[in-house]
Amino acid sequence: MTVTAARTLTSAMACFVGIGLPSTAANLARRTHAPGLWMIYESGTLGAAPDTLPLSIGDGILAETADSVVSVPEIFNYWLQPGRIDVGFLGAAQIDRYGNINTTVIGDYTDPAVRLPGAGGAPEIAASCREVVVIVRQSRRTFVESVDFVTSVGHGRGPGDRERLGLRGAGPTRVITDLGVLEPDPDTRELTLASVHPGVALDDVHAATGWDLAVSPDLTTTPEPRPAELAALRDLTRS
Amino acid sequence: MILPLDEGIRELVHDGDTVALEGFTHLIPVAAGHEIIRQGLRDLTLVRMTPDIVYDQMIGAGCARKLVFSWGGNPGVGSLHRFRDAVQNGWPVPLEIEEHSHAGMANRYVAGASGLPFAVLRGYLGTDLVGRTGGIAAIDCPFTGETLTAVPALTPDVAIVHAQRADRAGNVQLWGITGVQKEAVLAARRSLVTVEEIVDELTPVPDQVLLPARVVTAVAEVPGGAAPSYAHGYYARDNAAYQAWDAIGRDRERFTQWLDDDLPGARPAGRKEQVNS
Asked: Nearest C-alpha of chain B: how many angstroms from A72?
């Protein structure tokens, strides 16, 4: 999952990085095929190049290795909002068939079953990055017919919704899970299974999805991680 | 004005105030938060983009009536369990929440610091935050007609931040990840800055943020006042403490024990007697 996510990044990109799997994937990309990847973290570090994985978005190592450190208003107003960031990585507690994301509450808002951390930078990352990659483990609890709360807009309820709302980026172009990769159908905008990871059966993916998942006619098997990628990943996550 | 921390809190923070303790992972004014718990302040509206473990502790101790925020979690670890318990179960007191996105909160501070009633940003549209949070309104651009979002200015009664150092006149140097501290201080009516050290003369530092003495109400010297977060150039983040908090915060009894052990003299949540010194 992390290797597949890392492969979506190139040296030419500016990437808005969140902590956890997105940060691991971005740092892996920078250490393997994308040394020029420009990573920005919402704490205000532009062009961070940490030697080890940061433990939070405001880890001191990000500031020490950054091209520049700016204020939080500047990150959102000058860098994210005008569309200067190519790709944003997001996680999700729930995601629906149109790639809408919930990180706010499970259950009713005023009487939640589980209160989650909330929006953070995600709504504007989802609205303003040229494209969004979601990294999330796949299960029926997470992949739901309809999210309990729309924290970040994916493709709304289908074609034309993003444009109607005035959202500038393309929205989620890829959802990478531990089972496979989903991509929005160009016509319906519904998430469609584009590839399954090696050794994963199609039934497993259906069983882990809370809606009737469409499968691409061109379904492929995700390429295996190369030894060099695995070694870099192990090196990165050791300690 | 240079004051000891306890006096600074006593003079500047009162029951019912809107208080912003800012710090974006770096330079979190933890010692000041603990002093607020120790003084038993109540009914506070706590404001902060990223409430983390010190807000979890203040909420668990019953200081807060309301939380205004954009992301509440233990960074790199998981959930804030005292915050969750207050929202889901009203323990020890019910907690009203008003939630925004980071971009919304940052712009609310900018409006407050700019002396404007509201800020405009491109964001929020299509999210359920629009219906849930009162202070988010669609606004048409008078020039292009484009629909944007307006958010009201944040003007806390008190902003509290931690910085590396200040001089005796109260000029403050703060560098590294600067978050939204400058905006919070400029937006607030009163401000308290805790610092690692007070020096006779400030040496110039590249990338510094200087809060001139005229916008700072009081400075308190509190070495280590940001721990377990960190102060760039002084000490590193104590990641183990953030991890250890998960188990303490998860359990009401362990949390109450922590209050007794770590903040002796803190009044138990729910008791309302006033402390007059």
From this structure: 5
- Measure the CA–CA gap between A169 and A146, rounded to whole angstroms: 22
Closest residue of chain A to B28, computed from CA coordinates: A58
- Look-up: residue for tokens 């990150």? A75
Residues of chain A scoring pLDDT < 70:
239
> Which pLDDT does position B204 carry in this prediction?
84
Identify the pLDDT of residue B267: 61
Parts of chain B with a pLDDT under 70:
207, 267-277
Contact B134, B98 (CB under 8 A): yes
User: Given an 8 Å threshold on Cβ–Cβ distance, is B230 in contact with A60?
Assistant: yes
Per residue in B157-187, pLDDT (tens digit) is 999 999 999 999 999 999 999 999 999 999 9
pLDDT score, position A54: 85
A141: left (phi over 0), alpha (psi -120 to 50) or beta: alpha
Structure token digits, residue B112? 């407050």
Distance from CA of B35 to the nearest CA of A (A): 24
* A-chain residues near B106 (CB < 8 A): 72-73, 76-77
Among the partner-chain residues A43, A81, A149, the one whose CB lies closest to the CB of B121 is A81
- Binding-face residues of B in 35-94 toward A, CB within 8 A: 49-50, 69-73, 75-76, 79-80, 83-84, 87-88
The answer to whether residue B189 neighbours chain A at the CB level (below 8 Å) is: no
Amino acid A170: pLDDT: 96
Tell me, yes or no, if A190 is annotated catalytic. Answer: no
Q: B273: distance to nearest CA of chain A, Å? A: 30
Nearest to A103 by CA among A169, A19, A26, A45: A19
Exposed e or buried b for every residue in B166-203, given b needs 16+ CB within 10 A?
bbeebbbbbbbbbbbbbbbbbbbebbbbbbbeeeeebe
A96 touches chain B (CB under 8 A): no
Q: Which residues contact A178 (CB under 8 A, 6 or more apart)?
A: A1, A137, A138, A197
Q: Tell me the two tokens of residue B263.
A: 């903040």
A108 touches chain B (CB under 8 A): no
From the CA of A217, how many Å to the nearest CA of chain B? 31
What is the rounded distance in angstroms from the CA atom of residue B31 to the CA atom of residue B9?
A: 11
Q: How far is CA B152 from the centre of its chain?
A: 18
pLDDT of residue A61: 86
Distance CA B74, CA B52 (A): 5
ipTM here: 0.95
Instruction: For residue A58, give the chain B residue with the closest CA.
Output: B25
* Rounded-to-integer distance, Cα B2 and Cα B217, Å: 9
The predicted structure's pLDDT at residue B273: 41
Residues of B14-24 as b/e, b for ≥16 C-beta within 10 angstroms?
Answer: eeebbbbbbbb
Within 8 A of B206 by CB-CB distance, chain A residues are: none
Q: Is A25 helix (H, G, I), strand (E, B) or coil?
A: helix
